[in-house]
What does this fold into?
Amino acid sequence: MNTKLNAELNTKIINTLRILSVDMVQKSNSGHPGMPLGCAPMMFVLWCRIMAFDPSCPLLKSRDRFILSNGHGCALLYSMLYLLGYNYSIDDLKKFRQLCSITPGHPEINAALGIEVSTGPLGQGIANGVGMAISSKKLGLKNHIYVMCGDGCLMEGVSYESASFAGHLKLNNLIILYDDNGITIDGKTDITFTENTRERFKAMHWNVLEVSNGDTDIEDIYEKLLLAKKSLDKPSILFVKTTIGYGCVNAGKSSVHGAPLGTIATEQLKEYFHFNKEEHFFVDEEVQEYFINFKKEKGRGREENVKISIENDIEYVVNEIKYFKNCDNPYATRDSSHIILNKIAKLLPNIIVGSADLAESNKTMIANSMIDATNFNGKYLNYGVREHAMASIANGISTYGIIPVVSTFLVFITYCLAPIRMAGLSKHKVIYVLTHDSIFLGEDGPTHQPIESLTVLRSIPNVLTIRPCDTTEMSGAYQIALQYNGPTALILSRQVLPNVYTSCMDKMKKGAYTVYESKSTPLINPISNKKNKNLDLILVATGSEVSLAIEVSNSTLFENKNIRVVSMPCCELYDLQTDEYKEIILPKNVTKISIEAGATLGWYKYVNYTYGIDCFGESGKMNDLKDHFGFTVEKVCAFIEKLSI
Amino acid sequence: MNTKLNAELNTKIINTLRILSVDMVQKSNSGHPGMPLGCAPMMFVLWCRIMAFDPSCPLLKSRDRFILSNGHGCALLYSMLYLLGYNYSIDDLKKFRQLCSITPGHPEINAALGIEVSTGPLGQGIANGVGMAISSKKLGLKNHIYVMCGDGCLMEGVSYESASFAGHLKLNNLIILYDDNGITIDGKTDITFTENTRERFKAMHWNVLEVSNGDTDIEDIYEKLLLAKKSLDKPSILFVKTTIGYGCVNAGKSSVHGAPLGTIATEQLKEYFHFNKEEHFFVDEEVQEYFINFKKEKGRGREENVKISIENDIEYVVNEIKYFKNCDNPYATRDSSHIILNKIAKLLPNIIVGSADLAESNKTMIANSMIDATNFNGKYLNYGVREHAMASIANGISTYGIIPVVSTFLVFITYCLAPIRMAGLSKHKVIYVLTHDSIFLGEDGPTHQPIESLTVLRSIPNVLTIRPCDTTEMSGAYQIALQYNGPTALILSRQVLPNVYTSCMDKMKKGAYTVYESKSTPLINPISNKKNKNLDLILVATGSEVSLAIEVSNSTLFENKNIRVVSMPCCELYDLQTDEYKEIILPKNVTKISIEAGATLGWYKYVNYTYGIDCFGESGKMNDLKDHFGFTVEKVCAFIEKLSI
It folds into this structure.
């Protein structure tokens, strides 16, 4: 391919990108013109002279990946992808930021359209890039991951955590282009950000490169990117000095960041770049012709379009782990998880398990399979004490068809909720192993004891939250997680949980099912879901509270009552069931009480009364806490008696 | 005071701290012995030779502050405070990690007992220290803030954000003691953390000091702390090389981090330090005598114990802002917030308002009152794009009696949920201004549109979440926030909200109240809360949905029905009301529907049917989104009609 275009055409293409982007923002009367005007040269060099990809075949396994971490600048990316011949029309550009358009206000994952991940929340794209770089190395690919970002991305803690980790792992296939424009929304960057960022990245073992004039010196951008690609054992970051809003009257000021330029300034801009100010969404014939040829060239001699598919692997693995179920010994669910997860990791080639320095507590260690800077063939990755980066990196890993399993204490979802939300939004297939799932972790006390965590997870769309009650449900939970094309949070106990003899990995796939009725003989025969007659009360419980609910239902206090116990490991799956099924399990005319050692707020959706914990926990021994917070048979029975049902 | 103790006594005190800590862990059969064995020399030098404080008068305004960011090592801190003569008995040490003891598993805020903030979640303590250093400078105090931390704290993104900001602000009154022991829970630190941390801190403009033998060279620790105290324009970090578990058989290994040593290893340890292995919780007479004298010395010549009290200021300010209420012009609540907040900031000396680089969007700018490295007298602080640090720093600021007001978009609580949770747990008086409170922010799309956020905040104990419907409720919300001794989240609209003519800042203090009944004449006279007869339906709404609910209730479709609209700006306050009040506002026998543009999960507690958004948003114009997601009068009416109430 002819990469040495004449300078005039280069400039015309770059200015076309600039003007298209500004027209988009102007037409939608909403968006961010400043970044596209500054970053168009980088975008051009990257896509037209550096990256390996094919617009006619956008899912090529070995394609280079591009991530726009400063996602608010997406008008520029859409303009670029449009010119390159991805499946955008000029009308799509005109519908920028309109409902149901393919050009929304921040990039939304759609690899077929050149959008590798959703971005917007700052810093996430850098972490996603680290995850992609790890996946690429694990799969033995030779591609590169390019991340464009701004000041905001570098200020965010998640980018520090990720960059420190990328330097540690010597990810030389990762290249950041930093739009070093010296401007943030609230003013000049130096009102808050005066660290020596170059030195900081050097301290984290990055290859630091500099482009002193990113507004016009495209050859320098090109040369520095070539240097970055040659890095042997370090990720690279290019500090590209640009002028935000380059070419317009308010260039270099915060005011051009996030609002349309207005008609007059747009006209002035077009004049500055020698465009006809009467024309909108204009692409010169020479530019069109260039990209027609470019697309042809890109289509030549490419490898097979092999998308990584793990569906067959997953079916096989799920069938194998069905054999894990309750046996004589009861386990903590974190322990049964450990056994099952090791089996899964043994059978599944494309999996990366890890923990934020709590592998011994989360029980996620995979034996003899460590990934490190010298070897990415393994299946276990130590993330260090970096929950936020870990979960964001997992999102990046998952885009390659590798399943990331990441773990920490449940309470510490507070450190990584942004990427969990992004996983829900983007339906990334990520499995979170979240242990120490209630105050019953004991002595570590309220900073470590989840109260609100389950409610938080259940309130995020598309995230499955599963709290199994024993080994059988633990196995079922992994089966669900492996088959679900989205993120799943597995909520596991530190303490040993009794076997529930009627738990069922198949029934649990409906989210909730009857595990016990006190007037039946359930210890021998599991209850049919169809017997709803003569029920006095239903107790709905999850995880460690299922066996407690069964004990309560068997209390001599209630010997004249028929009490059903429903295990509800996954509210989201239950919500998907038919009204008929719901009426069988939780009939409207029977009083229902939830029992869960956590916030009650989310339970009124399913029950009439809730039994939970709506204050913070306490440091103490587990049995003392059970008594103090009322999670004993006696105290639950007393609560029920008072209701006079 | 005699600071030049003989070396033998120093060593004896340090070893007493070590053995006391190990005995505590051993007796409770739970805890972390590794850190106390390594950090006892630092702890001794700091408290016995460096810090200014008085155990008899622990709340002295000018005292130096100590934060144990690696809070799991708290056995060491309790031992130290016990010896110093804070109000701990030897029995309190014996009750370590027991329910209702004053020695819980991680430090829990109690300044009278020497615990300045709750710690445990790693990295938070460093950010808290930055907040305290800012408060100290604003109040013109000359004290120092000392933070002890471990590898985990430095790996966390929040510590990077905070450290970068501290360097920017030249906080020379902040000193970190980094327990550089080379060990994390999952193994040696270098399995994940190989950056050059010293160079990184230098790049962030920190004064970097080194102690090569922190296990025994207490004079070096002392000298380096003296140097740090003399820093003119930089915060300081001491890299103190220690041996985790110093003195015990598994010294230097991860295994000594988080589990009791066991009887045999404890006996060996006591022998190593020449303690009687038969004795437990032993304090030598010479050591006791030393601390009796020490306490006497500390009590001499101290200043007045002036605790900063802002209660009178707050009462005055609250009375003043009562005059802000609906006038002719309707406002976006972010705009009415801007006006009221500027009034508050003008009247209240001890306030620091700030934003994570979104001041122009959050409308939190306070004119002509900027805080920067050269001037801490102001009332406005730019935090940069650092949501996590901002909220954690706010917790630290609040401990000095200064009210921090911090702002970002509502959706980005995902970046700072850990410090919001800590604020709830510790009852820090922090005000969060969270704008762009629903999908109606429009074009920025689903990464910026909150869905689950309100449910998340409402599920955290002790956090008040207030979503006002107009200017009057906005004013009431600030009154509540200022008077509440804990954290309050104010949830504000980007778009203009119509005035609700019957909104009431006094009634809203009960969390929910009737704003309208369709068969009354509410536009003239506010409805009395006592008329519950002949109600057909109650609509419960918050924020932007209150006026929508009133419009719905007035629809000609329902002209034969009496529909009440309840504004419920704060669920948490409503929960505190009497059953009688609740029965007046939301009587059991009337059908109730919630209307809120967000997740419905938490609403079933109050209503029979919910109307909300349980999927992610879309990029588009506000009115298109209102139609698409059903937030128009027509679509809400259609929903209600289908219910056939």
About this structure: Residues 7-28 of chain B form the longest helix (22 residues). Chain B has 23 helices and 18 strands.
